[in-house]
């Protein structure tokens, strides 16, 4: 079983985080260590257990065991803490992560196959991303811990129950793990892994996630297929405006448009600033204010996200936007 004696098993999740377009989550060795330390500082409070991770400049993969509601609070706190650290260190404004984290449920049916395949996928992700030719040469995954090469890890992983699935003898289990990883290196692609819905099942109802939760099903992940002028026009129509309003109402709508454009449509902040005839720093501060309001009242963000899913690319592109 994949849990300490005397404790009921939690749910296994693969959690992914992505950086905003054109950015990097980690710029130095200290950034990687800080992120892992922030995870470790939350383990006892949320009764979370980690089996592996992969930290890459553009993406983070975490394999953890936790209940659904605890996972939501855990990840929200982690994102906020690291964003504050990153923005303070690099004098950055606005979000660091691209939208909300994604969650995949790993079912305990055929747990050996599902868990081991997911672990291998995580530890080989830097190789797949072209960051290293050998997972042993990339320091920011759990591979070194599985091979017994780290005496005092920043983020201790639940290695023993996994290695016991490979062999009862610890030394033999590590040899088998290295061979299992090497076998994965020979793959030309991971299409089979991505298609295996028993391994990664994006079904929120089975996971027990409420609609207002911060968790989001990857299958339902929404990408806004609208230009910024089209998004702006949709927002005006939603609130019953024929022309752009003035003052604070214009500012609030601008913040929504900026968020939808940068987080869901992949539009750079510089393009948003140019469209609204503002400085990029103004857009960054506007996004930060919106995130702060949504942290205090997550239901507001959920309403906007639900509305964004109703949009379709049907309106013609506007050539000019009225400014406040």
Describe what you observe in this structure.
With 324 residues, the protein is of the alpha+beta class. It is 49% helix and 9% strand. It has helices at residues 29-46, 68-90, 111-128, 143-146, 160-166, 170-185, 191-195, 204-207, 228-238, 247-264, 269-276, 280-296, 298-308; strands spanning 11-18, 49-56, 59-66, 102-106. Strands 2-3-1-4 form a four-stranded antiparallel β-sheet, with helices on both faces. A hairpin with a 2-residue loop joins β2 (49-56) and β3. The termini are far apart. The model is unreliable at 1-9, 195-221 and 313-324 (pLDDT under 50).
Detail the topology: elements first, then pairings:
Blueprint: E1 11-18, H1 29-46, E2 49-56, E3 59-66, H2 68-90, E4 102-106, H3 111-128, H4 143-146, H5 160-166, H6 170-185, H7 191-195, H8 204-207, H9 228-238, H10 247-264, H11 269-276, H12 280-296, H13 298-308
Antiparallel strand pairs: 1-3, 1-4, 2-3
Helix pairs in contact: 1-2, 3-6, 5-6, 9-10, 10-12, 11-12, 12-13
SS strand fraction? 5-15%
Low-confidence spans? 1-9, 195-221, 313-324
Q: Structural class of the helix and strand makeup? A: alpha+beta
As laid out across the biggest beta sheet, the strand order is 2-3-1-4
What is the end-to-end distance?
A: 60 Å
Q: Which of globular, elongated, flat, extended, rod-shaped describes the shape?
A: elongated
Q: Radius of gyration from the CA trace?
A: 22 Å
What is the string of helix and strand elements? EHEEHEHHHHHHHHHHH
- Helicity level: 40-55%
Count of DSSP strands: 4
Write down the overall mean pLDDT: 78
How many DSSP H or I helices?
13
Characterize the largest beta sheet: strand count, sense, and whether it forms a barrel. 4 strands, antiparallel
């Amino acid at each position: 079983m994949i849990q300490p004696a005397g404790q009921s098993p939690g749910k296994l999740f693969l959690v992914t985080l992505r950086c905003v377009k054109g950015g990097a989550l980690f710029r130095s060795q200290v950034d990687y260590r800080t992120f892992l330390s922030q995870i470790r500082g939350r383990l006892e409070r949320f009764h979370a257990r980690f089996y592996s991770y992969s930290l890459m400049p553009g993406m983070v993969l975490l394999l953890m065991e936790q209940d659904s509601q605890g996972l939501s609070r855990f990840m929200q706190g982690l994102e906020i803490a690291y964003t504050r650290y990153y923005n303070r260190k690099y004098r950055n404004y606005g979000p660091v992560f691209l939208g909300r984290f994604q969650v995949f449920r790993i079912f305990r049916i055929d747990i050996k196959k599902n868990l081991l395949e997911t672990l291998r996928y995580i530890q080989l992700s830097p190789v797949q991303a072209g960051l290293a030719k050998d997972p042993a040469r990339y320091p920011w995954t759990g591979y070194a811990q599985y091979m017994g090469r780290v005496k005092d890890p920043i983020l201790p992983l639940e290695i023993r129950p996994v290695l016991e699935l490979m062999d009862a003898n610890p030394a033999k289990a590590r040899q088998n793990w290295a061979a299992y990883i090497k076998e994965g290196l020979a793959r030309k692609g991971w299409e089979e892994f991505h298609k295996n819905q028993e391994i990664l099942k994006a079904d929120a109802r089975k996971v027990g996630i409420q609609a207002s939760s911060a968790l989001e099903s990857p299958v339902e992940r929404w990408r806004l297929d609208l230009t910024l002028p089209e998004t702006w026009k949709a927002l005006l129509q939603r609130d019953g405006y024929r022309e752009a309003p003035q003052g604070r109402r214009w500012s609030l709508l601008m913040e929504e448009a900026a968020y939808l454009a940068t987080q869901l449509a992949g539009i750079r902040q510089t393009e948003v600033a140019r469209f609204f005839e503002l400085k990029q720093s103004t857009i960054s501060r506007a996004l930060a204010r919106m995130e702060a309001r949504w942290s205090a009242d997550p239901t507001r963000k959920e309403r906007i996200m639900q509305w964004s899913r109703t949009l379709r690319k049907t309106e013609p592109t506007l050539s000019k936007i009225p400014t406040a």
